[in-house]
């Protein structure tokens, strides 16, 4: 049976599938003594972030969407146990990046109206949980599409120009690290769960369509002065607890990764790497630094060799049953595991802070390269 046919039959078999429409996710970090290894890097002016729930620190709090996480138990291991809108128990990978380069401990959401000029100058996230490269993806969940995130970035530029002048702003943007993390929603939700895109595209054709969106995004950021850009690849999507639930013959007893779906993510990552290499080759003489960040390998290693990392559970999330809950289904009334550091996943889609931190350590060399 083909991947598409299998997904179609399983979605019909599981009434749970609709809740997957909105939820998306990804991966990243755990708070360790990061300050001990922080590299104060004066060549990095800011961290500017675009994408989905893996890098949204709370922008969805300020828009009309049900896909939020600004309530317990989210944020249980964050400072002051604050549920900020991050879809995890603590910090995101982008928070660890900002801390590592010596800017600040947390990357705030751009839509927070209380941000100071200093906060703006050192970096913000424009990301929105539920978004993706495909313009159709954020419409499913009424979240912020990536072109709109770019419009917010242009607005951000203008605010800085008014405050510190155009020359300083241009220099700040040139020295900033741009991080883009999206794509999981496009494949898991938009292609394999909904019938619309499958009617128009083969999986290979759809991935090519997404690469066109990636290229357009880079062009738009480049036109606004971005020169250091890091694209995060996809995780093994077949290992997301909710994907296992929707595609297992027995969701409670047979909880192995759905390998054919993870292979789709692996193929996507290969296409993304090739696209980024081609763009970098064309722009290198103009001072570009465009890098690919691999999370497929680190997450796969954590799942396969979980005991080496101190994990005890890799196919269920910490919140609720861990097999279906995310966003509003993981709420103050949900059961929560006593120690999230024993889990790769916080809810049925999103990683724990510890997972994010381990991934951050794996990508740190890319931060070093893009910063120099």
Question: Any overview of this molecule?
Answer:
It is a single chain. The protein has 372 residues and is an alpha/beta fold. The chain has a 4-stranded parallel β-sheet, sandwiched between helices. A two-stranded parallel ribbon has the order 5-6. It is globular, with a radius of gyration of 19 Å. The protein has 13 helices and 6 strands. It has helices at 3-13, 93-100, 117-122, 136-141, 146-164, 166-175, 184-191, 196-200, 203-223, 241-247, 259-283, 296-304, 353-371; strands at residues 47-51, 177-181, 228-232, 289-293, 313-317, 343-345. GO terms for molecular function: hydrolase activity, acting on ester bonds.
Task: Provide a compact summary of the structure.
This protein is an alpha/beta fold.
Annotate the secondary structure layout.
Layout: H1 3-13, E1 47-51, H2 93-100, H3 117-122, H4 136-141, H5 146-164, H6 166-175, E2 177-181, H7 184-191, H8 196-200, H9 203-223, E3 228-232, H10 241-247, H11 259-283, E4 289-293, H12 296-304, E5 313-317, E6 343-345, H13 353-371
Parallel strand pairs: 1-2, 2-3, 3-4, 5-6
Features:
13 helices, alpha/beta, 372 residues, hydrolase activity, acting on ester bonds, four-stranded parallel β-sheet, single chain
Unreliably modeled segments: 6-40
| Outline type | globular
What's the total count of β strands? 6
| Rg result | 19 Å
What is the percentage of strand-forming residues?
5-15%
Strand order in the largest sheet: 1-2-3-4
Sheet/helix structural class: alpha/beta
**Major sheet: size, sense and barrel closure?**
4 strands, parallel
As a percent range, the share of helical residues equals 40-55%
Order of helices and strands: HEHHHHHEHHHEHHEHEEH
The residue-averaged pLDDT reads 91
Keywords: Signal
Pfam families: Lipase_GDSL (PF00657)
InterPro entries: GDSL (IPR001087), GDSL_lipolytic_enzyme (IPR050592), SGNH_hydro_sf (IPR036514), SGNH_plant_lipase-like (IPR035669)
Family: Belongs to the 'GDSL' lipolytic enzyme family.
């Amino acid at each position: 049976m083909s991947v598409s046919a299998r997904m179609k039959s399983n979605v019909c078999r599981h009434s749970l599938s609709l809740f997957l429409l909105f939820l998306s996710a990804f991966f990243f970090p755990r708070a360790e003594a990061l300050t001990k290894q922080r590299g104060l890097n004066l060549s990095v002016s800011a961290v500017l972030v675009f994408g989905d729930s893996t890098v949204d620190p709370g922008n969805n709090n300020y828009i009309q969407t049900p896909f939020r996480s600004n309530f317990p138990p989210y944020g249980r291991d964050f400072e002051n146990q604050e549920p900020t809108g991050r879809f995890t128990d603590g910090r995101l990978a982008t928070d660890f990046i900002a801390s590592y380069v010596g800017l600040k401990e947390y990357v705030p959401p751009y839509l927070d109206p209380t941000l100071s000029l200093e906060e703006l100058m050192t970096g913000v996230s424009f990301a929105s949980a539920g978004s993706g490269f495909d313009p159709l993806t954020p419409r499913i969940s009424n979240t912020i599409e990536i072109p709109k995130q770019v419009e917010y970035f242009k607005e951000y530029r203008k605010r800085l120009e008014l405050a510190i002048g155009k020359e300083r702003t241009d220099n700040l943007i040139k020295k900033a690290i741009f991080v883009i993390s999206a794509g999981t929603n496009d494949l898991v939700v938009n292609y394999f769960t909904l019938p619309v895109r499958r009617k128009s595209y083969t999986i290979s054709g759809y991935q090519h369509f997404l690469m066109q969106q990636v290229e357009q995004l880079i062009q738009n950021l480049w036109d606004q002065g971005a020169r250091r850009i890091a694209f995060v690849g996809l995780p093994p999507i077949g290992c997301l607890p909710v994907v296992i639930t929707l595609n297992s013959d027995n969701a409670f007893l047979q909880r192995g990764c759905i390998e054919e779906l993870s292979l789709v993510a692996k193929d996507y990552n290969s296409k993304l790497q090739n696209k980024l290499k081609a763009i970098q080759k064309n722009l290198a003489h103009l001072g570009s630094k465009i890098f690919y960040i691999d999370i497929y390998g680190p997450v796969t290693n954590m799942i396969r060799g979980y005991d080496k990392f101190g994990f005890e559970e890799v196919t269920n999330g910490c919140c609720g049953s861990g097999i279906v809950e995310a966003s509003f289904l993981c709420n103050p009334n949900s059961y929560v595991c006593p120690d999230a550091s024993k889990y790769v996943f916080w809810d049925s889609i999103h990683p724990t802070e510890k997972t994010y931190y381990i991934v951050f350590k794996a990508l740190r060399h890319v931060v070093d390269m893009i910063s120099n």
